[in-house]
Write a structure and sequence with these properties.
The chain is α/β, with parallel strands linked by helices. Helix content is about 40%, strand content about 20%. It folds into 2 domains: about 300 residues, Mur-like, catalytic domain (UDP-N-acetylmuramoyl-L-alanine:D-glutamate ligase, 3-Layer(aba) Sandwich); about 140 residues, Mur ligase, C-terminal domain (Protein-Tyrosine Phosphatase, Chain A, Alpha-Beta Complex). Strand 10 and strand 11 form a beta hairpin. Helix 1 runs parallel beside helix 5 and helix 8 runs parallel beside helix 9. The longest helix is centred in the first third of the chain and has 22 residues.
Length: about 450
């Protein structure tokens, strides 16, 4: 029986929303690709009075680093006195993580009320445009919520791609594209240039755009797209001075990354990056560039307050260290670039005798390079899958490929709970466990391990 749209609590709201097409959990196919179009989203927005047009926004796309960039931007703006809405995906443990104001999750009551409002509007347009998806409705819930609460600015993370992503009905104050890599190729294209063209589809005429120094073909394509649309594009590291360094201070438990950046507004010197890993330096530079560009659009952000509040930026499931003896690291590295960055960060930030990895990933991911990267550092890998995720790769198939790539000791566990048990068995106090691959696997592990106050340590 199909869930009723006449719900009155979180369970009913979630039952209805999860009954819709959830593109995050489906394997790419011609039918899935056909869902990426904006006509239905625009019709839904019109039915609700175009709430997205009443708020100022920042729009961030990219293959890796966009979530971290959004979090850093939000922290800086909040620290400068602004009320900041955040719409990000996927969530790690609670769907309400997707819709936040000043980092506070939307309340269950508001979530249910907005779900009912948006579902009723979606039913009105369904006859002419087809049934809405989970992501479309939750995106519109965020727009309505931010408009109702009159946020000063909302930081909006693209779900997939950019040009046809349902968030792309906004006209932001600033658009940004984080690092681009191979991901979702069945939908976005088989080359980095084709993927870049889709990501650059969020650029708008006359709206400042930023990206980071990366593959030359990607930057060239983003410059082309920006030039054609009339968006002034700044490449951090090419058009503005940018550098970073990693320091191991005596007596410090963790190394620290610092960035230096010079823009037309001034110089950001020796700024500590709040998240672990050298790769976060690039995201930090992009975030600084976004806020710097907002200052050119009338925002007032004193540098000292920006840098002070930047230090508070945190993101669950990104190199999150839970417990000790052994340490358990949760990191949703779900593409080759992210896994390579994770491996580097593990070696730089943690000391361990042996490393056990719990790994599960979507079947459509480019997972062979991910397995190769893990094979170079893991002493043991436990392959598993998240519960109820149709996109999940078969753990036994992952193990077979891992062995063919020369991976060492490996096991298969049918559930994340069993995988954690296998991982922890035989671990000494000097060893480490890393749960990675899919955010669904990381979220499930996070829920199992629990996040009691004081249990999570962040480098």
């Amino acid at each position: 029986m199909e869930p009723s749209a006449d719900f009155s609590d979180m369970d009913g709201a979630l039952a209805y929303l999860y009954s819709l097409v959830d593109l995050e959990r489906l394997r790419p196919s011609p039918a899935v690709k056909d869902q990426y179009k904006l006509d239905r989203m625009r019709a839904l927005a019109r039915a609700l009075g175009n709430p997205q047009d009443s708020i100022k926004t920042v729009h961030v796309a990219g293959t890796k680093g966009k979530g971290s960039t959004c979090e850093m931007v939000g922290a800086m703006l909040e620290g400068c006195g602004y009320t900041v809405g955040s719409y990000t995906s996927p969530h790690v443990n609670d769907v309400r993580e997707r819709i936040r104001i000043n980092r506070q999750l939307i309340s269950p009551g508001d979530f249910v009320r907005l779900a009912k409002t948006v579902v009723l509007a979606a039913l009105q347009v369904e006859g002419g445009y087809g049934r809405g998806t989970f992501f479309e409705l939750t995106t519109m819930m965020a727009f309505v919520h931010f408009a109702e609460q009159a946020v000063d600015v909302a930081v909006i993370e693209v779900g997939l791609g950019g040009r046809l992503d349902c968030t792309n009905i906004i006209t932001p104050e600033v658009s940004a594209v984080a690092t681009i890599g191979y991901d979702h190729m069945e939908i976005l294209g088989q080359t980095l240039e084709l993927i870049a063209a889709q990501k650059g589809g969020i650029f708008k005429p006359g709206v400042p755009a930023l990206t980071v120094g990366q593959d030359a073909g990607v930057v060239k394509e983003l410059r082309r797209v920006a030039g054609e649309i009339g968006a002034p594009l700044v490449v951090v590291g090419e058009d503005v001075e940018f550098s970073y360094r990693l320091e191991h201070a005596a007596g410090s438990r963790w190394p620290q990354v610092y960035v230096h950046m010079r823009t037309g507004r001034g110089e950001y010197d020796f700024v500590p990056v709040p998240m672990a890993g050298e790769h976060q330096a690039v995201n930090c530079g992009l975030a600084l560039g976004i806020v710097d560009a907002l200052c050119g659009r009338g925002f007032v952000c004193p540098m000292d307050r920006m840098i002070q509040s930047l230090a508070t930026a945190r993101l669950p499931g990104r190199f999150e260290v839970v417990g000790s003896s052994p340490a358990v690291v949760l990191d949703g590295a779900h593409n080759p670039e992210s896994v390579r960055a994770l491996v580097k960060t593990l070696v730089q930030y943690l000391r361990f005798d042996a490393l056990v990895v719990v790994f599960g990933v979507a079947a459509d991911k480019h997972f062979e390079p991910m397995l190769r990267a893990l094979a170079g550092v893991a002493d043991k890998v436990v392959f598993t899958r998240a519960a109820g995720n149709k996109r999940s790769a078969d753990p036994a198939a992952l193990q077979k490929r891992y062995r063919a790539l020369g991976g060492r000791l490996s096991f298969v566990a049918p559930t994340v709970r069993e995988a954690l048990e296998v991982a922890r068995k035989g671990c000494g106090s000097g060893d480490a466990v890393c749960v990675t691959g899919s955010f669904y696997v990381v979220g499930e592990a996070r829920a199992i391990l629990g996040e009691r106050r004081g249990q999570v340590r962040r480098p």
